[in-house]
Specification:
The chain folds into 2 domains: about 375 residues, MFS general substrate transporter like domains (Growth Hormone, Chain: A), CATH 1.20.1250; about 50 residues. It is built from 18 helices and no strands. It holds the Pfam family MFS_1.
Length: about 450
C-alpha cells in the first residue's frame, strides 16, 4: 500500500491562501475607516476594533491551535478553518450594523488563528532543513502579497460599490484554497497527546482583551478596570505555564536569549507593518482629501516590493546566513521610516509612497528571516511552542500597534484646533514612537550577532 505523503508546496499554498485572505481583508478595511466612521457614527478609537478584535481572536486562537494540531488531523483542521472563514465573510457581506461586522471579523479571526500555525507547522515539520528559509519565505509571501493589494482592493470596491463587497469577492479564493488543501493534505494518522489547559486559555483571553481595552481607553479612569483584568490574566497564564505538567504553551524556550532577541525584533517589525497600514490610508484621506481608492493605491508599490523580497531574502538566508539580510533590512527600514515621519509634516503623496517603498525594502529583507532565525535557536522538539509564541505574539503585537497609533492620533485630534492639524501631529507622534522601538531592536539584534560571532 502506497504511503500517504503531504504535497509540501501545495499544502503551504493552500493554508497560505487562507492567511492571505485574512490579511487582505485586514488591510483592505483600513482604507474604509473614514467611511465606516460616517456610516455608523463612531469614533476613530472605536472603528479600529474592526482590526483589533480580529487580531485579538487570532492571538487567543493560535495557542489553542497548538493543542488542536496535536489532537486533530491536519486535513480535518484545515477543512474546519476554511468553512469558518467562509461563514465569516458571508456574515460581513450581510452586515447592516457595526456589531454584526465585528461578529464576522471574530469568525475570520478564529479561522486565521488556525491557518497561520497550521501553515508554519507544515513548513517546520515537513520541509528539509536546507530549504527551510526558502519555504518560510514562500509562506510569508502568501501573507505578504495581501498588504500589497489589500488597500487598493478595498479602495476600489469601497469607491465603486460598497465595503461589503470586500468580503464576498473572496469566496472563490477560499474555495480554491479548500480544493488545493484537500488534494495536498492527506488524512495522516496522529498520536493524540495532552489535554486542553482551559485555565491557561482563559488567562490569555483576559490578558489580551484587558490590555487592548486598556490601550483603547487610556486617559480615562475607567481604563483601570481592563488594566486590572489584563494583569489578572497574566498572573493566571504564567502560573499555569510554570506549574502545570502539560501547559497550553511552554515558556521555557524564552530562557534562550537569542530566541528572545529575534522574537522581539520580529514583533517590532509587526508593530510597524500594522501601524503604518492604519496611519497612512487615514492620513491620505483626512489630510490630503483623497478618496479610499487613492489611499489604497498609494500603499501598493511598497507592499508589493516587501512581498516579492520575502522569498528572495529567505534564499539569501539559506545561502549566506541570517546576519547580512537582517541587519541590512532593519537599517533600510529605519531610514525609510524616518523619511516617512518627516514627510508627514509637509505631505506630498509621491513622497509618502517613496518613503513607504524604502521602508518596505528593509522589511522584505528582515521580516521572515527574523522568525526563521529565532526558530533556528531552539530544538526541534520545541518547534510547536516556538511556532505558537511567534504567531500568538505576532497577532497581539499587531492589535497593540493598531490600538496604540489609533489612541495617539485620536488623543491629539481631540486636543487640536482642527481635525487636519490633529491628524498630522498625531500621525507624526505615532510614527516617531515606533521608530524608537525599531532603533532599539536594531541595536539588540546587532549585539546578538556579535555575541554569536565571539
Amino acid at each position: 500500500m502506497k504511503e500517504k505523503k503531504i504535497h509540501l508546496t501545495m499544502a503551504v499554498l493552500a493554508t497560505g491562501i487562507m492567511s492571505f485572505a485574512g490579511v487582505l481583508i485586514e488591510t483592505a478595511m483600513n482604507v474604509t475607516f473614514p467611511t465606516l466612521i460616517k456610516q455608523f457614527g463612531i469614533s476613530t478609537g472605536t472603528v479600529q476594533w474592526v482590526t483589533t478584535i480580529y487580531l485579538l481572536v487570532i492571538a487567543i486562537m493560535v495557542p489553542l491551535a497548538n493543542f488542536l494540531l496535536k489532537n486533530m488531523t491536519l486535513r480535518r483542521l484545515f477543512f474546519i478553518a476554511n468553512v469558518i472563514f467562509i461563514l465569516g465573510i458571508v456574515t460581513d457581506f450581510l452586515a447592516f450594523n457595526f456589531p454584526i461586522l465585528l461578529l464576522g471579523r471574530i469568525l475570520q479571526g478564529v479561522s486565521t488563528g488556525i491557518a497561520l500555525p497550521l501553515m508554519f507547522h507544515i513548513i517546520l515539520k515537513y520541509s528539509p532543513l536546507k530549504m527551510r528559509g526558502t519555504m518560510m519565505g514562500l509562506g510569508t509571501l502568501t501573507t505578504s502579497i495581501a498588504p500589497a493589494i489589500g488597500p487598493t482592493y478595498g479602495g476600489i470596491l469601497t469607491s465603486a460599490l460598497s465595503w461589503h463587497y470586500i468580503f464576498i469577492f473572496l469566496v472563490p479564493v477560499l474555495l480554491l484554497s479548500l480544493v488545493l488543501g484537500l488534494i495536498a493534505i492527506p488524512d495522516l494518522p496522529i498520536e493524540k497527546s495532552g489535554k486542553l489547559d482551559l485555565v491557561s486559555l482563559l488567562g490569555l483571553a483576559l490578558l489580551f482583551s484587558g490590555s487592548l481595552i486598556f490601550l483603547n481607553q487610556i486617559g480615562s479612569w475607567l481604563s483601570i478596570i481592563p488594566l486590572a483584568v489584563g494583569i489578572l490574566g497574566l498572573v493566571i497564564f504564567y502560573r499555569q505555564a510554570t506549574h502545570t505538567k502539560e501547559p497550553l504553551v511552554s515558556l521555557k524556550i524564552l530562557k534562550n536569549s537569542a530566541f528572545r532577541t529575534f522574537l522581539l525584533a520580529f514583533l517590532v517589525c509587526q508593530f510597524l507593518l500594522l501601524g503604518v497600514s492604519f496611519v497612512l490610508p487615514n492620513f491620505v484621506q483626512i489630510v490630503l482629501g483623497k478618496d479610499a481608492f487613492v489611499a489604497g493605491l498609494m500603499m501598493f508599490p511598497g507592499a508589493t516590493v516587501g512581498a516579492l523580497l520575502a522569498p528572495i531574502s529567505g534564499r539569501m538566508l539559506d545561502q549566506f546566513g541570517p546576519k547580512k539580510p537582517i541587519l541590512i533590512g532593519l537599517a533600510l527600514a529605519a531610514i525609510g521610516w524616518t523619511g516617512l515621519t518627516i514627510i508627514l509634516r509637509a505631505p506630498i503623496l509621491l513622497g509618502l509612497v517613496a518613503g513607504h517603498v524604502f521602508y518596505m525594502i528593509g522589511i522584505g529583507f528582515a521580516y521572515s528571516n527574523l522568525m526563521t532565525s529565532g526558530m533556528s535557536q531552539i530544538d526541534d522538539a520545541d518547534f510547536g511552542d516556538g511556532n505558537t509564541i511567534f504567531n500568538t505574539l505576532q497577532q497581539f503585537a499587531g492589535a497593540v500597534a493598531t490600538a496604540i497609533v489609533a489612541t495617539i492620533i485620536n488623543f491629539v485630534q481631540n486636543h487640536q484646533a482642527d481635525l487636519i492639524s490633529g491628524t498630522i501631529l498625531g500621525s507624526q507622534l505615532a510614527l516617531a514612537f515606533l521608530l524608537v522601538l525599531l532603533l532599539l531592536v536594531f541595536v539588540a539584534v546587532w549585539r546578538e550577532f556579535q555575541r554569536q560571532k565571539k
